[in-house]
Write a structure and sequence with these properties.
Strand order of the largest sheet: 1-2-4-5-6-7-8-14
Strand content: 25-35%
Structural class: alpha/beta
Order of helices and strands: EHEEEHEHEEHEEEHEEEHE
Radius of gyration: 20 Å
Shape: globular
Number of strands: 14
Mean pLDDT: 94
Largest sheet: 8 strands, parallel, barrel
Number of helices: 6
Length: about 260
């Protein structure tokens, strides 16, 4: 089993105490096609390099400069791979940078991680998918991914679910809530909390005079570990945890 802690640079000192390899969330490609880096101490080496792209450059931007900058950082800091954090739909620039980056990383035996939605853009890349679902069956979801791509290509992002859904919820999108808000709701409502075997998460329902029926879905240490166990049962052995999201649960959650 391989586990990585996705860590912003301002949480670096605390995350190091968890004794897991880190995926450094300190890099992004700007709209001009250059790599930007947050401050990282020079002694930071090893683990993964996470590269965001909040505003992808236009399709006619040459990706070679950004790719060379990424490869240079990987070499200098001994990173073993790159995670591309892609939230935008595919574009000509994204297509080109994936192709160029995969070629450069493979040459030095480094890995590339892409969202599952980008699976067709590189047959060699590892693919990451989220454990937080609001409908269907997580086991079936993971089994289907394994059957489609093979377990060796997959990494499960153990993203903590904690959201309030209006019922009915045709989009399956809930409103994220804080730990404090969840505690206040549970103290005030004293709900009967259930565990969904399909979602592998805890939930309860309540009624509001103003907004009607609600469904609250949330993870704790036990449900996240069960999600990891479920993934291992179908053959997945790579996992991402997000810091500081899991900090409130304690380091035992990753053991």
């Amino acid at each position: 089993m391989k586990q990585y802690l996705l860590t912003p640079p301002n949480y670096l000192a605390a995350a190091r105490s968890w004794d897991l390899p880190l995926a450094h969330m300190a890099f992004q490609i700007g709209p001009e096609g250059r790599l930007h880096q947050a401050d990282l101490p020079p002694e930071v080496t090893g683990g993964l390099m996470l590269v965001g792209m909040p505003e992808p450059p236009t399709g006619d931007t040459d990706p070679r400069r950004a790719v060379q900058e990424i490869l240079s950082v990987c070499q200098a800091r001994a990173f073993i791979g790159v995670v591309l954090d892609l939230e935008e739909p595919p574009s000509p620039y994204i297509t080109r940078i994936i192709e160029a980056l995969q070629t450069g990383l493979s040459r030095n035996r480094r890995g590339l991680f892409l969202p599952e939605s980008y699976a067709n853009f590189s047959p060699q890349a590892f693919l990451y998918l989220s454990s937080a679902i609001s409908g269907g069956s997580l086991r079936q979801r993971l089994q289907a991914a394994v059957e489609t791509y093979g377990a060796d290509r997959l990494a499960l992002s153990l993203h903590r679910a904690r959201a309030d859904f209006f019922l009915p919820s045709p989009t399956g999108e809930g409103r994220p809530i804080s730990r404090e808000e969840l505690r206040r709701r549970m103290t005030r409502l004293e709900p009967r909390v259930h565990f969904s075997q399909d979602l592998c998460a805890h939930y309860f329902t309540y009624m509001s005079r103003e907004t009607g029926a609600h469904f609250i879905l949330f993870d704790d240490e036990n449900s996240l570990r069960k999600k990891r166990e479920l993934a291992q049962e179908v053959g997945i052995q790579r996992f991402f945890w997000l810091y500081p999201e899991v900090e409130e649960l304690g380091s035992r959650v990753v053991q």
